[in-house]
Amino acid sequence: MKRVLTIIAIFFTCMAQAVEPLRSSYSLNDDWMFFYASEHDSDNARYVELPHTWNDDVAVADHDYRRTTARYLRELYIPAEWSGKRLFLRFGGVQSVADVFVNGRHVGEHRGGYTAFTLEITHRVNYGANNQLLVEVSNSYRNDVLPLSTDQNLYGGIYRDVELLVTGKSIVTPLYYGSDGLFVVQQKVDANQASGVVRVHLSSPTSDNVAVNMRIVAPDGYEVDRRSVRATKIESGRTVEIPFEINYPELWSPASPSLYTVEVSLGDEESPMDFVSVKTGIRKISISEDNKLLINDKPLFVQGVNLAHDCHASGSAMSREQILSDIDQIEDLGANAIRSLGGPHADMLYDECDRRGILAWIDLPLTRSRYAFADVGYLPTVALQDNAKQQLQEIVAQNFNHPSVAMWGLFSLAWQRGDDVVPFIEELDALAHSLDASRPTVGCSNSNGAINFVTDLIVFRQDAGWMKGQFDDVEVWCDQLSSNRAWEALRYAVSYGEQGMMSHQDDEVRRAERGTHRLSERRQTLMHERYAAILPSSGIFWGVWLENMYDFATTRNSYGIDHSGLMDFDHRAAKDAYYLYRAMWNRRRGTLHIAERRWTERRDTLQNIKVYCSTGTPTLIVEGDTVAVREVAQCQYVADSVVVHQRATVRAVDATGGLRDSVGFTTHSLKARR
């Protein structure tokens, strides 16, 4: 029935359009048959809807996690009226290698699971008939496709949207690295004027000359620039650059996310052959000599979270509603930036970041798992290097117009033993700057050496006190970092975070041990409390990045889940650390939270009670008695040595009287020590 409705919708849309219609897009998310390659044929195929992954129910167990090859099959009716049009398939994301066939003929391959790709199928379809689409998908290990090593599960499947694009003959090409084919290149930006070029990639099967028209509309709806140029000999592809100028632009920033509309049409403006429109923001990103990230020459301290690509029961095939919910929670936390961990997310996430004023750092998946010492994250082979460059070009092209995207990540925790990866990172850095001179490059490092001096920005991954030393040792590290003259030229931020399970509540907060099966939430909270008190106040970083916003699935540890998130794998329950940062970062909404609320069975009758509050010193009441509270760090308060006999109810009220919280717990003085 859904297929019939799709055919009817396509037919009437076609009939309603002019003789030379503009481009149209149709969702192809429904009516796919799915079966594993090992099943040999489609007799046992089951119908699925996209987004889809064959690992969507993986929660923990390694034996449930499939790295294999599967096939997706569907029919597509192409109306006879489309003869003479151009047809394209656009895949938002296929994990990790895709081969696409139309009517049994191969139309293209794509290697890389996090970026979109587009293939032209004009000369492979039968008009006025059903056509068979077959997509063979593999998430099997390969040594020529990034990532070679990762903590995140590679779920497999067509896990983002698929659409059919129908256009005229002479068009702004959708084939340029899976992008819109239209790039707003900002060359000068200040409060008085913004100028640059609108770069348009064209495609046509003929050698006709064509007018290329550009129009820019301000956030208030008024036209601020309009120009036209004529392109010749475009049959083999042609790039046109149209200059633009905007006087007194409304600059995009997290505080004021103003968006311009840039429109490009081909041919007669009244009845164009093609039309493409993008939203973008006018802004400048730079880094100061005193290590401040500047947006439009104004410093912004980055408060960011790492964001993985999955959720319980959905895997990586997350819906639009789930992605919007994640952004809502990130906003509620008060974070002003996200890091797309290990590769880009769906395009709509960055649309939301543009609209809401949230910065984004997008990683190239040149990374290495923290769990496996034998993993190889890089090979000095031409095949792998070419794939890395291809993925970087796709990442930049597909996200170029997003003003929220502030930096391109080139590597994460790269291994510096064996083959030297630094010369290749230098190649990637040069490529990134040639593709986009307006944004800095960034790397995430947990080691010393030359690797820290390649990218424009560097983020140090720190875990002092987790397995050795004390958490306060991070203060000594800050002093050493700021006094190291060899590192004066670096522009650095810091990333940190470790694991804590809400179900693991221990009386003693012990140092973590390698391979431990106890991941105490209280120890995770303590790490965040001390780091949050020390790192921002040091004044030496351009930002902090928390690992991670959510727990994520990984077959690399014994639980099958990396529990370093501020929230659980369901993206529903928040850990204590979430409320710590919400109190510090979210100034639009007040926070009052009594910590350690899941530690309900306690050994000692003498307790320290911790409260996070954003509105000043709270009032704490234990069994009807008010107890003294002292501030130990920003938004962190403690009531020391509170006597609790057996069962107690603890209540907190903020200074305004509008925020309240309460918890209950039981103490047992003779409770056995672990």
Walk me through what this model shows.
It is a single chain. With 674 residues, the protein is an alpha+beta fold. Among the domains are: 2-168, Galactose-binding domain-like (Jelly Rolls, Sandwich), CATH 2.60.120.260; 182-285, Immunoglobulin-like; 601-667, Immunoglobulins (Immunoglobulin-like). The protein contains 8 helices and 42 strands. A hairpin with a 2-residue loop joins β22 (293-295) and β23 (298-299). α2 runs parallel beside α3 and α4 runs parallel beside α5. It is globular and about 85 Å long. The model is unreliable at 1-20 (pLDDT under 50).
What does the secondary structure layout of this molecule look like, with pairings?
Layout lengths: L1 H15 L7 E4 L4 E5 L9 E3 L20 E10 L7 E6 L2 E2 L1 E6 L2 E7 L5 E4 L8 E10 L18 E2 L3 E6 L3 E2 L9 E8 L3 E11 L6 E8 L5 E9 L6 E10 L12 E7 L7 E7 L4 E3 L5 E3 L2 E2 L2 E6 L12 H14 L3 E4 L6 H10 L2 E5 L18 H18 L5 E8 L9 H14 L5 E5 L11 E6 L10 H11 L8 E5 L24 H18 L4 E4 L5 E2 L7 E2 L13 H10 L6 E3 L6 E2 L3 E8 L5 E4 L2 E3 L2 E4 L2 E8 L3 E7 L6 E8 L7
Parallel strand pairs: 24-25, 24-31, 25-26, 26-27, 27-28, 28-29, 29-30, 30-31, 35-42
Antiparallel strand pairs: 1-12, 2-3, 2-4, 4-10, 5-9, 5-12, 6-11, 7-8, 7-10, 13-15, 14-15, 15-18, 16-17, 16-19, 19-20, 21-22, 22-23, 32-33, 34-36, 36-40, 37-38, 37-41, 39-40, 41-42
